[in-house]
């Protein structure tokens, strides 16, 4: 069985940036990039589901999400990173070197041993499961107001959800949109009082109480959403050009339950850097970040993890 200096799980902005840096440090990284058929750990991460990206530095005219990820992937390969298109199915962090099993290698034997492990498995936005939701993702359906709000200037849009995240998204979107309708299945928000007060005081925010979204309407872009009243069952179409789904995120961390410290929401806990509670295991990107969730912050944390790995391996080598 092969032993690597570092294995990276995940190939979004965090994982591939970590690959660039560790490859340049001559650590021969192996990137287990995920599977195309998987919704939680597909190669390239969530940016593969994004169309125009306008807030990644260095692209004044914007760049397509898949194009950006392919460029970073090519950069990592140019410096010597090895990438394998499969997903990790099991890890053993109880002994060192760490062991990783993959779907490609099967359950019998570990696919690889590694002296250091970078976890960059990301997180996935919880979706509504609507018939046209996936088809229109990136064409009016979004899960990130910070990423896509700019595209909805002077338009009427909607946000689904009732917690702090949904209200925060709605308030941010009022900087661009003409109106923002919060669609909530109950007759009261779950958000904190201060967030509710801000929403109710904003003239651009409308409330659609006791309603659930049944589907998104549109051929090539969103032209409306069909909602059902939870009290009388009646349906209507709201004429909006954008739907922001803000019902939460789920970190892809189930592989590490019982081995790494996770917070109550399942995010990997890191202490001041990318280090986890297991020496030699580092985490970066959205699997440990529930605050920013941006491609650029994920890339930055991937750089941090790579530098932390290089220093940890060097320290271990000189310690004996």
CATH class of the largest domain, anyone?
A: Alpha Beta
Portion in beta strands: 25-35%
Indicate the structural class: alpha/beta
Count of distinct strands: 19
The number of helical segments is 6
Brief summary:
This protein has helices at 13-24, 65-78, 145-148, 164-173, 193-201, 295-319; strands spanning 3-9, 30-32, 52-53, 63-64, 82-84, 88-92, 98-102, 112-119, 123-125, 141-142, 156-160, 179-183, 205-208, 211-217, 224-229, 235-238, 242-245, 249-251, 281-283. The protein has 320 residues and is α/β, with parallel strands linked by helices. The protein folds into two domains: 3-125 and 249-319, FAD/NAD(P)-binding domain (3-Layer(bba) Sandwich), CATH 3.50.50; 141-245, 3-Layer(bba) Sandwich (FAD/NAD(P)-binding domain), CATH 3.50.50.
Describe the structure.
By secondary structure, the chain is an alpha/beta fold. It is built from six helices and 19 strands. The strands form five sheets. Strands 1, 2, 5, 6, 7, 8 and 19 form a seven-stranded mixed β-sheet that branches. The chain has a five-stranded parallel β-sheet with strand order 10-17-11-12-13. Strands 14-15-16 form a three-stranded antiparallel β-sheet, with no helix packed on it. A hairpin with a 5-residue loop joins strand 6 (88-92) and strand 7. Helix 1 packs parallel to helix 2 (65-78), helix 1 packs parallel to helix 6 and helix 4 (164-173) runs parallel beside helix 5. The chain starts with a strand and ends with a helix. The mean pLDDT is 92.
